[in-house]
Amino acid sequence: MMQTLLIFSHTYFKDSKVNKALLESAKDIQGLEIHNLNTLYPNGKIDKEAEITLLKNADKIIFQFPLFWFSTPSLLKEWQDEVLTGIAYGADSKMLKGKKFQIITTLGGAESSYDGHHGYDMKTLLSPLQSAFSYMGCEVLEPYCIFSANVENLNMSEYVGVLKG
């Protein structure tokens, strides 16, 4: 069975409605580990070695986050700086090779808000993350973007399908 590691971050997690509902719907999926950076590292100090161990055991890595100011929440960026740098320049620099990587992101705006008319489309906005994991040897899967995210309009079965896929 494929082991999926869902690395989650949300700067305002305690006030989250959409992402809390999504994570709740996924908590019983066999083979899925939900790894909430905000509850694990409330002080922002990331345990790089523990994170690398989790990645070693995962077949698929998912980043889930709300898009903030066209980017990731700050703790997820800190995770990238600490953990990916530790892998890329460490003894296990090839440890992510062949693993799958995917982004799940929630957005308050409609899909048309991210069509490029502000200057950048979703493909461009997510490309730094996808490029980093591609560089590390991962197979990068299509992102799953939840536009106009609202608890009342969430397609939970589609979301769970992405997690299991």
Main traits of this protein?
alpha/beta; 18% strand; 165 residues; six-stranded parallel β-sheet; globular; 6 helices; single chain
The number of helices is: 6
Mean pLDDT across all residues, rounded? 94
Poorly predicted runs of 5 or more residues = none
Q: In terms of structural class, how would the helical and strand content be classed?
A: alpha/beta
Rg (CA only): 15 Å
The helix/strand order is EHEHHEHEHEEH
Query: Distance between the terminal alpha carbons, to the nearest Å?
Result: 12 Å
Q: How would you describe this structure to a colleague?
A:
The structure is a single chain. The protein is α/β, with parallel strands linked by helices. 37% of the residues lie in helices and 18% in strands. The protein contains 6 helices and 6 strands, in the order E-H-E-H-H-E-H-E-H-E-E-H. The chain has helices at residues 18-26, 37-40, 48-57, 74-88, 122-135, 156-164; strands at 4-8, 32-36, 60-66, 100-106, 139-140, 144-146. Helix 3 packs across helix 4. The chain is globular, with a radius of gyration of 15 Å.
